[in-house]
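Support reply, case 0932

Customer input (verbatim):
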Amino acid sequence: MKLVYCDFLAGCFGGTCGMLVGYPLDTIKCWQQASNCRVGTAMYKIIVMNNGLKGFYRGMTFPVLTTGLLNSMLFGIYGNTLRNLQLNVPDDEKRKKLQPRHIFIAGSVGGFLQAFVANPIELVKIRLQTRSCVTSGSWECLKNILKTEGFLGLYRGLTPMICRDIFPYGIYMLAYEQILNIMGCLPYIQEQRRRNAEMKLTSVNSNLELMLTTVSGSIAGVLSWIFVIPFDVIKTIMQAEPNPYVYKNMFHCISVNVKKSGWRSLFRGSCMLLVRAVPVNVATFIGYEYCLEKCKKNLIIK
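Our regenerated output:
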């Protein structure tokens, strides 16, 4: 198995782990954004309108089937873009100096490209989560959108989604690597790693590496979301609206909602979104690192 395949496989596994952990919180967040309501009101509506707790998992079929693909695509593009950027710098010292910039660029490229594949999936998920789709199943909702809005209807909200994903994924990857490096320079961490090396512990079975991945993933996830919350809100509002003529574009949607509910509405769901970022990114990175380590180990054995 080539190293490139390890990036895609690890991304697939890590994405699935993150999605399973964070989906109920994502449903609450989407209800808040689409309905401009508080957490308690959103949870009440989800339970009442879906006759129970199953509403928190409504619309999960497409994410379950595709989150692995999307994350394998993201991490695969990130890993390969970063590798190519680094290889194009012949000088070792200059390569090390440019590494943070390369990490940011590679993450941004991955976020930009995966948005085109993820948008239709997000659209169907949000329509089902907010019950703005007349059908109950993911495939039925997809066919209904195609029938009533055409193929371009699947890309409703693409502009705010690109704005939401392109730079945050660069920040996401850069923050994760930088925080991991900063903690790795601490004397206590270096001593623990030395002891782990003596005991022949790898990143898979070391509690220290698990802790470092957890902390780095949590902080990186929160930092990557802080600056793009309004874009996520607008994306959700545009995608939850079944009438294609209500909003002309992203700026029209912003104008309408600011006049209707004020600027604070653009930050609706912020708390739930940031809270969700911690367990989701922890699970994603742990799954990614675990699978990548296993994959590389098998590659060495072969």
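We compared this against your earlier run and they match. Two observations from our side: The longest helix spans residues 92-129. The radius of gyration is 20 Å. Please reopen the case if you see a mismatch on your end.
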